[in-house]
TrEMBL record:
Gene Ontology terms describing biological process: guanine catabolic process
InterPro entries, sorted: Amidohydro-rel (IPR006680), Guanine_deaminase (IPR014311), Metal-dep_hydrolase_composite (IPR011059), Metal_Hydrolase (IPR032466), Metallo-dep_hydrolases (IPR051607), MQNX/HUTI_composite_N (IPR054418)
EC number: 3.5.4.3
Pfam hit, one: Amidohydro_1
Catalysed conversion reaction: guanine + H2O + H(+) = xanthine + NH4(+)
Similarity comment: Belongs to the metallo-dependent hydrolases superfamily. ATZ/TRZ family.
Cofactor note as given: Binds 1 zinc ion per subunit.
Name by which UniProt lists this protein: Guanine deaminase
Length: 433
């Protein structure tokens, strides 16, 4: 199949080296779920004269977005105002997550969650799981049914949460092992060891997390790091022998190129150096950091230290699933810092696509429109009469068009989404629309 559309992606090795590449009348030839050819429509058409054609009139066809940090059991807590991290967890979020003990409820929530990702244009994600193994299994199964390339894992904690959410190191090991055997590597599913954060983990639980990674070197790891000053002080009290927050994880062998640490709003220079040396990733979650008042992400310090970072929506502390909105919040966060990085549209698109794919260990598989990549695509086409439609009509060039999309496009601007070449969402396909 050939898609004829206005095509755009971000190419380059990092956010600041990124540049936009695209064709206003482009052609994208998809074969067996992969991009097989791309370029000016007339040339692609000439090379594949027999292929069926679908014309996407208006708007922009982009690589699907890749969310490097989002919580499965938190859709229902989006917008719980007035609290900082630790109070928000205790009063709102952990009680909501306790409901996932009910497997039928968890399965319905898994469907809602995956649908919310897809209709926001997100085609791959690293997802923080539930504390309940049956709920986590339901998420993997619903992702497989949808054809969504999910990377996720059972969230674990054995202190400082709520009793119903606590596990034991032995149980965490057994449940992780069972889920890894059932789901890791099945279709597009991948497993991430997911200790919730140092504050909720005993040394024995962190030891189990490290053991799982040693036993299965191709697993991912995700957790939280340096989000909030009160949290950081509490971690220092719990682990007095550790140099700092990152060192708690480092001592148990959790750092590496497949590790993603969410937030890192308050790192020290030693931590930045260790993150860079271990080639670990940070998931920058700007709407969450503003919503909980956690702070302004020190992007320049990460860039100067050579620490790689991608974007995370961090729903439900994050305020929507759309990585377009998240990219705009990343931009605004930098405007608010004295040492802020002035991010052009290419950098924002790079962060919302290519960075996430690399953070998920899939740098050649997703995040761009080059041949051989998975055909993961989002067609942004504003609804008729919308403000975005009016602004796009006046945009003189791709930078302005993308800037308008970051400012204005949310899930209602997503007209269609393909994952691995399959149309998984089209505006109007759900009855409620
Ligand atoms: N730290 C530990 N758990 C969470 C969570 O659910 N959300 C955020 N933003 N930070 C956390
Ligand atoms: Zn989080």
């Amino acid at each position: 199949m050939i898609l004829r559309a206005s095509l755009l992606h971000a190419v380059g090795e990092g956010p600041l080296e990124a540049r936009l590449e695209g064709w206003s009348d482009g052609g994208l030839f998809i074969e067996s779920g992969r991009i097989a050819d791309v370029g000016p429509f007339a040339e692609v058409r000439a090379r594949h004269p027999e292929a069926p054609l679908r014309r996407l009139e208006g708007g922009l066809l982009l690589p699907g977005f890749v969310d490097a940090h989002v919580h499965f059991p938190q859709t229902g807590v989006i917008g719980a105002l007035g609290l900082d991290l630790l109070d928000w967890l205790e009063r709102v979020t952990l009680p909501a997550e306790a409901r996932f003990a009910d497997e039928a409820y968890a399965r319905r929530e898994a469907q809602t969650f995956l649908r919310a990702l897809v209709r926001s244009g997100t085609t791959r994600a690293l997802v923080f799981g539930s504390h309940f193994a049956p709920a986590q299994a339901a998420l993997f199964e619903e992702a497989a049914a949808l054809g969504f390339p999910l990377t996720s894992g059972l969230a674990t904690g054995d202190r400082n949460l709520r009793p119903e959410l606590h596990t034991t190191p032995e149980r965490a090991y057994a449940e992780n092992r069972a889920l890894i055997e059932r789901y890791h590597g099945q279709g597009g599913l991948r497993y991430a060891v997911t200790p919730r954060f140092a504050l909720a983990a005993s040394e024995a639980l962190l030891e189990v997390s490290g053991a799982l990674l040693r036993e299965h070197p191709d697993l991912h790891l995700q957790t939280h790091l340096n989000e909030n000053p009160r949290e950081i002080e509490a971690v220092a009290r719990l682990f007095p022998a550790a140099h700092d927050y990152l060192d708690v994880y480092d001592r148990f062998g959790l750092l590496g190129p497949r590790a993603v640490f969410a937030h890192d709003v308050h790192p020290n220079p030693r931590e930045l150096e260790r993150l860079a040396a271990s080639a670990a990733w940070v998931a920058h979650c700007p709407s969450s950091n503003a919503f909980l008042g956690s702070g302004l992400f020190p992007m320049r310090a990460h860039l100067e230290a050579g620490v790689r970072f991608a974007l995370g929506s961090d729903v439900g502390a994050g305020t929507r699933f759309s990585l377009l909105g998240e990219a705009m919040d990343a931009y605004k966060t930098q405007r608010l810092r004295a040492d802020g990085v002035n991010l052009p549209a290419a950098a924002l698109l790079w962060l919302a696509t290519r960075a996430g794919a690399a953070a998920l260990g899939q740098p050649g598989e997703a995040g761009g429109l080059e041949p051989d990549r998975s055909a993961d695509l989002v067609w942004l086409r504003p609804p008729p009469g919308s403000t975005l439609e009016a602004v796009l009509a006046q945009a003189d060039g791709p930078d302005r068009a993308l800037g308008a999309a970051f400012a204005l496009a949310r899930e209602d601007a997503v007209a269609a989404v393909w994952i691995r070449g399959r149309l998984v969402y089209q505006r109007g396909m759900l009855q409620a629309e």
